[in-house]
Design goal:
Length: 376
């Protein structure tokens, strides 16, 4: 997991460094272009830097704000209605600043020699030009609208290049994430199986079934069926890493029924699922860590206890609520979290769902509740 996080972080740093090198090169170009004999013509360099800065601002906002927040989330209309006004606003402000600089840099007439021994006289802009003086031909300037149009064309090219680079960067990042996730799943697969199919659980279940044979043969047979369902799921259905929601529900139901064999009627165990379970794929054994934690830390043999699990479908989201009792003197479920640990559960969820899941934990004096919301 640490390797995956480090790899993603390094990838983002490399991406940022590449952008930085490219734009520093672009900014350096006017400086070297307008440097003659060691002197820099700042009157030409500064307007060019202002223009490049506007393109840089458009590039950065598009790459780090609009593309991730709108384009990647398929909010295409919102992307267009934000990137176009932003571009027009930045370009208009840039053209205005350049015009203001040009007004202050109006070409003055050269000083006029008025006679030997006399200092040259400066000619003001309101004074008539001397006889025979011909000012240099003025280059015809583009209208403001043509300048804005040119800048818009360049901005569109920059937006397209930045968006393409960001999409390519995201693809490489996701490919790297997928490979690291496959490695992480291979490393944790054996640990997960050892965690779920532990000898203590199997021993208790088999002992309970053995005792049931002399008391109620039918109940014992049913328990054997539940155990076979559990083992089949663990050994075959969950190997691919994904399973259907229906199979996951069947697995949890079998697990709960086997756990109920260990407790008396003082323990209230409830399992609620929707009448119609959608045919969707989810990661295998997604809820078992929370469920096992509820049984392990929420049941007391001396006092009344409860473990309630509820699955619900709301607005194309799967909501899993697991609630269990807490007894005096018992440590927090967070501190005593069993199995592979709450931190690892959260990291696995981040790998599988990125930032599209929601995990809420409520730890009070009398009960411990976990609410996990996932997209379907």
């Amino acid at each position: 997991m640490k390797n995956l996080t480090k790899s993603i972080s390094n990838f983002k740093i490399i991406e940022f460094v590449i952008y930085l090198i490219v734009w520093l090169t672009v900014f350096a170009f006017p400086f070297f272009r307008f440097r003659v004999s060691g002197a820099v013509n700042w009157e030409k360099v500064i307007p060019e830097w202002i223009k490049i800065t506007s393109f840089f601002i458009i590039f950065i906002i598009n790459v780090y704000v609009f593309v991730p927040e709108f384009l990647f989330k398929k909010k295409y209309r919102l992307y267009l209605t934000t990137v176009i006004p932003m571009t027009i606003l930045v370009i208009s402000f840039t053209v205005y600043i350049q015009n203001q600089i040009e007004v202050h840099n109006v070409t003055k007439m050269p000083p006029m020699e008025i006679g030997p021994g006399m200092p040259p006289m400066e000619l003001g802009t309101s004074m008539p030009a001397p006889m025979g003086y011909r000012p240099a031909d003025q280059i015809q300037k583009k209208s403001v609208y043509l300048v804005i149009a040119d800048y818009m064309i360049i901005s569109i090219l920059i937006l397209g290049a930045g968006t393409t680079l960001k999409i390519g960067s995201r693809w490489l990042n996701e490919e790297n994430r997928r490979k690291e996730l496959e490695k992480e799943q291979m490393r944790t697969e054996l640990a997960l199986l050892r965690h779920q199919v532990n000898p203590h659980f199997l021993m208790n279940t088999l002992n309970n079934i053995h005792a049931l044979i002399d008391i109620d043969v039918e109940v014992a047979k049913d328990a054997v069926i539940k155990l076979s369902v559990l083992m089949r799921y663990l050994l075959y259905d969950s190997v691919q890493g994904k399973t259907t929601l229906a199979k996951e529900v069947e697995f949890m139901e079998s697990y709960i029924e086997l756990m109920k064999l260990r407790y008396t009627k003082k323990v209230s165990v409830k399992f609620s699922v929707p009448r119609k379970i959608p045919d969707v794929q989810i990661p295998a054994m997604l809820f078992i860590s929370f469920l096992e934690n509820a049984f392990k830390h929420g049941v007391s043999y001396q006092a009344k206890s409860f473990v309630h699990l509820k699955l619900d479908i709301m607005n194309d989201k799967l909501v899993c609520m697991i609630k269990n009792s807490k007894h005096s003197g018992q440590e927090s479920g967070i501190k005593k979290y069993s199995g592979i640990g709450l931190d690892n559960v959260k990291k696995n969820l981040e790998l599988l769902y990125h930032d599209s899941f929601d995990l809420t934990i409520r730890d009070s004096d009398n009960e411990y509740e976990v609410i996990l919301t996932l997209p379907l």
